[in-house]
Write a structure and sequence with these properties.
The chain has 3 helices and 10 strands, in the order H-H-E-E-E-E-E-E-H-E-E-E-E. The protein has helices at residues 2-18, 21-26, 102-112; strands at 29-37, 42-47, 52-57, 60-65, 70-75, 82-90, 116-119, 123-126, 143-149, 155-161. The strands form 3 sheets. The chain has a 5-stranded antiparallel β-sheet with strand order 3-2-5-6-7, with no helix packed on it. The chain has a 3-stranded mixed β-sheet with strand order 4-1-8, with no helix packed on it.
């Protein structure tokens, strides 16, 4: 009886010691859907070391390893090429190792890259035709097209009127 209790306690301690919160709950890779209008645009993804990790067409869902950033180039003949970034962001679940994962959980999450998350969670690009130059609207005023990336990594296009000062 005593032996069974000791074995059970050791087994529970081993399981708790081998857990790694972020790796277990979120995994060491993430699926990122990539879409464009028009569809069938070329996608080339390179990791932070400059190595190509994906080559395909939209729409696609790409599985990327956590722990590094990615450069995504979406292009199509007759349209402007778009370059987007998939960045790393700290994964709060990593802190769960302080409660139950211990040093082994911390090491596993660090080695697998699960201590980081990838953002944005999906990419969508509305490709602009090269022939379309929307710098002047019907009112005769010239406009500049400005591309912005918000804090969540989402791209925005803003049309700003150009006026003489």
């Amino acid at each position: 009886m005593k032996r069974k209790v000791v074995l059970l306690v050791l087994l529970i301690a081993l399981l708790i010691g081998l857990t790694s919160c972020a790796t277990i709950f979120k995994g060491s890779s993430k699926q990122i859907p990539i879409n464009s209008t028009p569809s069938n645009a070329s996608i080339v993804i390179k990791n932070s070391n400059g190595l190509q990790v994906f080559n395909g067409i939209t729409p696609s869902t790409v599985t990327l390893k956590k722990g590094q950033s990615y450069n995504v180039v979406i292009s199509m003949s007759g349209y402007r090429t778009e370059t987007l970034l998939i960045n790393q962001q700290f994964e709060p679940l990593f802190l769960g190792n302080l409660i139950c994962g211990g040093i082994i959980g911390i090491i596993i999450d660090l080695l697998t890259g699960a201590y980081m998350d990838l953002t944005p969670a999906s990419l969508y690009v509305n490709l602009e035709s090269v022939g379309e130059k929307k710098t002047e609207l019907d009112d005769g005023i010239k406009y500049a097209v400005v591309r912005l990336v918000d804090l969540k990594g989402k791209n925005h296009k803003v049309i700003v009127p150009l006026v003489k000062a």
